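Sequence, please.
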């Protein structure tokens, strides 16, 4: 231990340690930002990824079309069974954005069937009924007596003052695309129904028998 001139021991202070400095290249890299080239490269990669992802996000899905067609097939099966259980005719009326069920009353007139699950059904957004076409062949139903009387009365009244034509014109928007009649003996109108979306179409075939009402295909 060193001793001073006065005879007192002195303690040597340790030398201060400075932090090691970064090498010049690393120091420069830690301080600079992104170059224009790097930003443009990242944007280009994001644009490529968005080109694959965005069309799939905004493309109409066929899930709603499949669900709607299967649901309609189940209801049409139930309508056929309901007509047989009640022993009277039941009618399905199709419009472009909804459909409804009707039942013949005591006097043979069609009355709205508002019992679940036969209440009016509105189609999901993007799904429409584009066509209800009767198939070729023998049709297993006859027009009801009430329909025949109504048509005759309209014709007679039209010849007098044309009121029937005016009424038809005012109710033009209410005319269904088509109807299917279910008979009490299990027979029905032979028809093909087409559901439409932007993504594709689904066709439903209506024929007699347990497997006569079915979805044929979904066509893009």
């Amino acid at each position: 231990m060193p001793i001073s001139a006065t005879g007192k021991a002195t303690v040597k202070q340790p030398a201060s340690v400075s932090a090691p400095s970064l090498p010049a290249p690393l120091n420069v890299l830690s301080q600079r930002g992104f170059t224009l080239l790097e930003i443009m490269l990242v944007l280009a990669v994001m644009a490529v990824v968005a080109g694959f992802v965005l069309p799939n996000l905004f493309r109409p899905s066929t899930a709603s079309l499949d669900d709607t067609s299967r649901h309609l097939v189940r209801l049409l099966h139930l309508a056929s069974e309901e007509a047989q259980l009640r022993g009277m005719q039941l009618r399905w009326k199709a419009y472009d954005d909804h459909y409804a069920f009707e039942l013949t009353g005591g006097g043979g007139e069609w009355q709205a069937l508002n019992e679940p699950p036969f209440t009016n059904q509105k189609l999901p957004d993007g799904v429409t009924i584009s066509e209800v076409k009767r198939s070729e062949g023998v049709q297993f139903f006859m027009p009801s007596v009430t329909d025949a009387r109504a048509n005759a009365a309209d014709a007679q009244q039209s010849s007098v003052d044309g009121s029937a034509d005016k009424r038809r014109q005012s109710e033009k928007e209410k005319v269904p695309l088509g109807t299917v009649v279910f008979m009490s003996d299990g027979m029905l109108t032979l028809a093909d129904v087409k559901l439409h979306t932007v993504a594709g179409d689904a066709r439903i075939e209506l024929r007699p028998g347990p497997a006569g009402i079915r979805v044929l295909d979904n066509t893009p």
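Residues 93 and 179 are 5 Å apart (CA to CA).
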